[in-house]
Amino acid sequence: MNSSKLAIEIPLEIAEPTTGMVQAVLRELLEHVELLAESGQQHVIDLTSLPLNDSDKRELENVLGKGEISVTLSTLGDSRIIETGINGIWWIKHFSPNEKLLAELIEITPFPEIIKSHPDDIKQAVFELKKLIEINESGEEV
Amino acid sequence: MSDNRQQLAGELQRHGISRRTFLKFCTSMASVMALPPAAAAEMAEKLVKIKRQSVIWLSFQECTGCTESITRADKPSLESLIFDFVSLDYHHTLQAASGDAAELAREQAMHDNAGKYILVVDGSIPVKDGGIYSTIAGMTNLDMLEQVAKDAAAIVAIGSCAAFGGLPKASPNPTGAVAVSDIIHDKPIINIPGCPPIPVVMTGVLAHVLTFGIPELDDMGRPKAFYGDTIHDRCYRRPFYDRGEFAKSFDDDGARKGWCLYEIGCKGPTTHNACATIKWNNGTSFPIQSGHGCLGCSEPDFWDAGGFYKAISTGIGNPGQWATGALAAGVAAGLASAYLNKSTKSKAEKNHQEVTIEDMGGKHE
Fold first, then answer.
1. Among B89, B239, B323, B364, which residue carries the largest CB count within 10 Å?
2. Which residue has the higher pLDDT, A2 or A21?
3. Is the pLDDT of residue B232 over 60?
4. Which 3 state secondary structure label does DSSP give A17?
5. Which of residues 8-67 of B touch A (CB under 8 A)?
6. Kind of pairing, strands A101-108 and A43-46?
7. φ and ψ at residue B79, rounded to 5 degrees
């Protein structure tokens, strides 16, 4: 049998139909953006716990659009943190080193906590920077 | 011992694991456990302060599928960080030691951490004929469970076998297999059923135990965060069910359109698990997404709960219970055990249900 003749094309990805959940999520977002604007109350919506399929998520991403800030956090795989076209709504995707989506969140906040340097890491940074200065002054090769 | 009980913070920092990494780990854990948003930060704060928790893992009547599941995430994965938070002092399949040295490691850990260690069990425990059907180092599973459970802080029963008896308990249950909770009554037991359970469910529960203690459990001892909803509740095909759009057989028009699989036997409505949201194989898919109904593998006695391709609404006669009833009647009548075994076997054969092409919605040619 000549295997080269077995060229059957199988579509690898078929887009699922949307479920209509996006409308509900948008209304929930509105409620929380109003709260953030009025009282500064922050909120997180965990997208992995909602019954959204991939088409829904793409639709929601398209509706919200992209804003001015996009951050890549590189620790045990990348995390992509972008502010959507709506100020105060941040879309966060945590990936593992093999690109598996671990968590997908929408944070309604002025600034996502994970971007800040942690006080403990800053304390450690004092030592590390001193060490670097010593090495630098002694003229050692790093 | 002092080595593996030092604070994690310094140890992990030396491995280049920053607090952001911690927060990322805890965010994904909190996310899968549906904890409130503030919990991720709190969990991270607690995790860096804890000392390594001693864990003794006992494998009884099982297939090692649960261990495969928890260790098979591609490394290095964030889930595998859990192994940095615990000291796995005994685990048949994973430990380097063997024979007497292995058993010694178990006894040493039990002695050093008496009252503090976590006991993880996968597999059911055979109790028929004094428990002789499964032994480790000459000790029956029953004896080993009782011995190790005595000084455990808590027990985590991993997989449907440890939680509910699982496949070994399926009719006619030749070894008298039972669940951990049938034997141990004086310790907190967390059941994490599934055949196997989802990896992140196991690591999530362990992370919760390490930081916030025992998670909220339902009446079957299952963490509500993962088993609070049915597959059906969170299924992306739910809108089709609500609209009455059902696949009537595999590969019919409805099946191709991705309609609800209820009528071809999906057990989603009666199965409590998190497959629909967390999914399998690195979040790739889950049975329903692949076009097959849920088998209900995380529910008690799922193997005896009627045909996999019969709709729940058709009713599920339980041949297992019927066979057990006949067995008990036989004992009352004082029949010889050899005859009994034979009779039980033939009944089991009679009750054995084969899946036919009609079950799957097809037609004989």
1. B323
2. A21
3. yes
4. coil
5. 9, 13, 17-21, 23-25, 27-28, 31-32, 34, 37, 41, 48
6. antiparallel
7. -60, -35
Encode pLDDT of B38-79 as tens digits. Answer: 688 888 888 777 778 899 999 999 999 998 888 865 444 556
Please report, for chain B, the start and end positions of each structural domain, with discontinuous segments joined by +. 52-226, 238-314, 318-365
Kindly state the tokens that stand for B353.
Answer: 């249900």
Rounded-to-integer distance, Cα A46 and Cα A35, Å: 18
Residues with Cβ within 8 Å of residue B336, at least 6 apart in sequence:
none
For residue A117, what are its two tokens?
A: 């340097």
Tell whether domain B52-226 is in CATH 3.40.50.700: yes
- Domain positions in chain A are 21-115
Cβ-based contacts of B41 with chain A (< 8 Å): 113
Number of neighbours of residue A38 by Cβ within 10 angstroms: 8
Q: Which residues pair with B57 in a beta bridge?
A: B91, B120
The encoded tokens of residue B39 equal: 């919990």
Residue for token pair 């999530």: B204
| Phi and psi torsions of B353, nearest 5° | -105, 125
Q: Which CATH superfamily is domain B238-314 in?
A: Cytochrome-c3 hydrogenase, C-terminal domain (4.10.480.10)
Interface test with B, best of A18, A21, A49, A105 (most B CBs within 10 A): A49
Pairwise pLDDT comparison (B12 vs B213), residue with the higher score: B213
Write phi, then psi, for A94 (nearest 5 degrees). -100, 120
- pLDDT tens digits, one per residue of B5-27: 445 566 666 666 778 888 888 88
Task: Check B282 against A96: CB less than 8 A apart.
Answer: yes
Q: Which residue in B19, B21, B232 has the most chain A C-beta atoms within 10 A of its own C-beta, making it the best mutation to test that interface?
A: B19
pLDDT more than 70, % of chain B? 78
pLDDT band, very low/low/confident/very high, at A9 (cuts 50, 70, 90): low
Which residues are bridge partners to A84 per DSSP? A66
User: Which pLDDT score, from 0 to 100, does residue B57 have?
Assistant: 95
Q: Reading across the β-sheet that carries B189-192, which strands appear in turn?
A: B86-91, B53-59, B118-122, B154-158, B189-192
Q: CB neighbours of B84 closer than 8 A, spacing ≥ 6?
A: B8, B11, B12, B15, B17
With residue B69 as reference, give the H or E element that holds it: helix B65-71
Mean per-residue pLDDT of chain B: 82
Following DSSP, what letter does each residue of B197-237 receive, concatenated? --HHHHHHHHHHHHHT-SPPB-TTS-BHHHHSSBTTTT-TT
Please give the average per-residue pLDDT across A95-113, as a whole number: 87
